[in-house]
Design goal:
Blueprint: H1 4-11, E1 19-25, H2 35-48, H3 53-72, E2 79-85, E3 90-96, E4 103-107, H4 113-121, E5 125-130, E6 135-141, E7 144-147, H5 166-194, E8 199-204, H6 206-215, H7 218-221, E9 224-228, H8 236-265, E10 272-274, H9 276-284, E11 288-294, E12 301-304, E13 310-312, E14 325-328, H10 331-341, E15 345-349, H11 351-361, E16 364-368
Parallel strand pairs: 5-8, 8-9, 11-15
Antiparallel strand pairs: 1-2, 1-4, 2-3, 5-6, 6-7, 10-16, 11-16, 12-13, 12-14
Helix pairs in contact: 2-3, 5-6, 8-11
The protein binds zinc ion.
Zinc ion (ZN) binds near residues 306, 307 and 318.
């Protein structure tokens, strides 16, 4: 799967030449007939119409490179994402464990929104299954589970101590359980360093699970998103079935909080903006800390050839400098790229929060680094 450095390379792409971005679904049933290849050819054909002879020749060269790769590589997983710009030496091809919608773009920057959405929606989370004797630790990313290997954790009372009176046995046992839970916390801390996660879910029978939660240090306690009842012997599919809905709900709640913050701060002179034109203004002033985009928003726009400002709709002249404009294919994608160029990040929101942002801000807004002059 895509590594952090590869994502950074895409986010930092300099736009020196157009990039062919390709997303294809490899869902089961599609693969035997190589239907993804047919879809790819059709989508590229659709792009050629909007280009001049020179542009078509360059697109054809990128498409040929992608086609050669598709011919060579047997499909794996449920989707794929490819980014190709031969003049700039950019080539990345990733099989994905999640289905993506077919989409092809040929623009000055890699088309990243579908990939970012996927990585955000399936961001890594950690799960600990715990009882008084055992603990199993997992990380889950893109529906794939990794279990931490650990072998020195069993709590047991030496048989030779059976002559102890009951009270002493219990005290000894409690001390061992406490040690086991502390050791589990230490394992979680190591896991966090090795495979950083934003959210933690604790599964277990209530007593040991609650005791564990009380022992979490602040950085882990802050990541604790939810708890659930489970035994430590869950299978992988059971673990996914139990935790994915919790992860999804936690993500929706985080999006709702982000939107609340944005709407609270979005006032003249405030630290946020909502709406397409205010957001484009903020981008032009390099003020965007977090660009917030409602899922499914499609906007057309233009770029000023003189000052570089992005403009909504089909503005014939720049509203700032009066310069001539050229249309951009996908305004949201351009806004995403500009945000990365100024070191900001992008949050895609879904469901109810997305509907609220469409209502309040045409689906686009931003948290700002500094208030804009009114
Ligand atoms: Zn301008």
């Amino acid at each position: 799967m895509i590594a952090e450095e590869q994502l950074k390379q895409l986010q930092g792409f300099d736009g020196s030449a157009p990039v062919l971005s390709v997303y294809l679904s490899l869902e089961p049933g599609r693969q035997p007939e190589a239907a993804h290849q047919t879809a790819f050819k059709g989508l590229v054909h659709g792009l050629r119409g909007g280009l001049d002879d020179d542009g078509r020749a360059r697109l054809d060269a990128e498409a040929a490179a992608v086609q050669a790769w598709l011919d060579r590589e047997p499909p794996q997983g449920l989707g794929l994402a490819i980014f190709s710009c031969q003049p700039a030496g950019l080539w990345q091809a990733h099989f994905l464990p999640i289905v993506v919608a077919d989409h092809v773009a040929y623009e000055a920057a890699p088309h990243l929104t579908p990939l970012l959405d996927l990585l955000e929606e399936h961001a890594r989370y950690a799960v600990v299954l715990v009882d008084k004797e055992q603990a199993r630790l997992f990380t889950v990313r893109l529906n794939q589970i990794e279990e931490e290997r650990y072998a020195h954790d069993d709590v047991y009372i030496d048989e030779s101590h059976t002559g102890w009176d009951e009270g002493k046995y219990e005290r000894q046992h409690d001390a061992l359980v406490q040690r086991h839970l502390k050791e589990t916390v230490a394992r979680l801390e190591r896991l966090q360093r090795r495979r950083p996660f934003d959210r933690l879910f604790v599964g277990g029978l209530t007593e040991a699970a609650s005791a564990l939660q009380r022992l979490l240090p602040p950085p882990l306690a802050a990541r604790l998103a939810d708890t659930f009842n489970a035994t430590v012997d869950l299978t992988g599919p059971e673990l996914l079935a139990r935790t994915q809905p919790l992860a999804e709900r936690a993500e929706r709640e985080a999006e709702a909080r982000l939107l609340d913050e944005l709407l609270d701060l979005a006032a003249p002179g405030g630290r946020a903006v909502r709406g397409v034109t205010p957001t484009l203004d903020a981008l032009f002033q390099a003020a965007v800390r977090t660009l917030v985009v409602a899922d499914g928003v499609r906007l057309s726009g233009a770029e000023c050839t003189n000052c570089g400002r992005l403009l909504a709709g089909d503005a014939a002249a720049c509203t700032l400098c009066g310069g001539a404009t050229r249309p951009v294919g996908d305004l949201v994608e351009w806004a995403v790229e500009r945000t990365f160029q100024q070191g900001g990040d992008v949050e895609l929101i879904h469901g109810d929060p997305a509907a609220r942002l469409r209502e309040a801000g045409e689906g686009l807004g931003a948290l700002l680094r500094f208030p804009l002059p009114a």
